[in-house]
Inverse folding.
């Protein structure tokens, strides 16, 4: 049996994640959108790096993830992949890159693997995407599911409030989770759902369940790196713990630089040729 140290040293694969769930080892996941950030996250020992379509809000300055294109995701996923050695790299499939039909979904997922070099893809939805999931898994593309608050459907939801509080929606989510597992998904993200429901889903599945705003009783957690670093400050969701205040540090550093330039204090003779 693999030990804790083995898991932390070896390349993370979908099989490794299943082993971690079986052993009760929590799975740490973060997002990244460029090579530099990905390298730092990887070196810190994070298990899964998601190239999220959240690039729309924290990098592109948009209000939702809906407008991100496949070309955007291919570009950012390629940057991230070059910075990673150990973590499993998962690429988000953006809105309308997999919903039209299973053939198009397979083709676009294949581009993510072949052109960007990701090791898995993620898509949102339950029963409606299961045929696409089956097609991808059948040809060897690992798929991560995503249920609960699915940001690509924000115009349908009309709100970012917690999902599946009502019994009917909770039952639908549990059913969708089982269907995704049966279709071959290697893991499922649950976003912004009640903690008890997330625990029930995690205990009912053989595959890992990764939470974001879904409480502590799941198999792992994921956050947007810009959120947990305090780099993106337009809003602060309740489920985000800020482990740093990078935005404050950056503003202060930029301000000191500008002051030194204006005062002719930079560059000095030692900083010149």
């Amino acid at each position: 049996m693999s030990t804790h140290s083995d898991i932390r040293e070896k390349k993370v694969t979908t099989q490794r994640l299943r082993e971690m769930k079986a052993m009760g080892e929590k799975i740490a996941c973060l997002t990244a959108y460029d090579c530099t950030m990905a390298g730092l996250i990887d070196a810190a020992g994070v298990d899964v790096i998601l190239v999220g379509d959240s690039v729309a809000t924290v990098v592109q300055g948009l209000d939702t993830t809906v407008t991100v294109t496949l070309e955007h995701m291919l570009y950012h996923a390629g940057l991230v992949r070059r910075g990673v050695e150990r973590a499993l790299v998962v690429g988000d499939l953006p809105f309308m890159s997999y919903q039209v039909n299973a053939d198009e979904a397979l083709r676009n997922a294949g581009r993510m693997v072949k052109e960007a070099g990701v090791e898995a893809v993620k898509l949102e939805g339950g029963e409606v995407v299961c045929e696409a999931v089956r097609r991808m898994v059948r040809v060897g593309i690992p798929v991560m599911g995503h249920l609960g608050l699915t940001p690509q459907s924000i115009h349908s939801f009309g709100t970012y409030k917690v999902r599946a509080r009502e019994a009917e929606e909770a039952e639908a989510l549990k059913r969708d989770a089982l269907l995704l597992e049966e279709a071959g998904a290697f893991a499922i993200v649950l976003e912004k759902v009640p903690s008890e429901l997330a625990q029930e889903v995690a205990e009912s599945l053989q595959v890992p369940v990764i939470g974001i705003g879904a409480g502590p009783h799941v198999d792992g957690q994921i956050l947007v790196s810009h959120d947990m670093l305090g780099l993106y400050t337009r809003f602060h969701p309740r489920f985000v713990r800020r482990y740093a205040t990078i935005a404050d540090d950056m503003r202060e550093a930029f301000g000191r630089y500008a002051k030194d330039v204006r005062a002719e204090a930079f560059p000095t003779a030692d900083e010149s040729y």
Remarks:
- The two ends are 58 Å apart (CA to CA).
